[in-house]
Amino acid sequence: MKKHLLFLGAPGAGKGTQAELLSQTNSYLHLSTGELLRKEIEMNTILGQEVKDIINRGELVSDELVLKIVRQNLDKDNKGWILDGYPRNLSQANSLNDVLIEINQPLELVFYLDIPEEVLIKRLLLRGRKDDTEETIRKRVEIYKKTTEPLIQYFKDLSLLEYIDADRDLKTISSEIKQKMA
After folding, report:
1. Is 87 annotated as a binding-site member?
2. Is 112 marked as a binding-site residue?
3. Was 172 annotated as part of a binding site?
4. What is the CATH number of the domain that holds 41?
């Protein structure tokens, strides 16, 4: 069974939900970069203070810093791990790959949760977050397409990519993911 996984997909495709279910079932680490950054800030670590300062200045956390936090979490003893929403671009993918080779935990499988844009927009609007207006959602999807979609081809070229139709019910998606991990 594959135990070093990555979930790719647009915001609202269900990456976090599927990664969380899988991590609970298999006792894998679920590494969502947003969660990891928030945890560092909460724990008031040196890295957390650095991240907090960057965010307070309204800047984006650098690729180097995110990679440092991801690596720190992968270095712990684990039965497996799922990266959720990272890497977001080719540069991050290459840096991550170097680290994974170094720590001898190469990526084994990438799930691309594919979902039609209109379904995605409806799903995110139903989520009801304050910042989820149709305009902001379309902007986030556009940014995702520009930066993250090249990763789909990148992982396809490495023969690591598995397409998942994410416009179905939770259980169906979940069981397809488990079958493809075997």
Report:
1. yes
2. no
3. no
4. 3.40.50.300
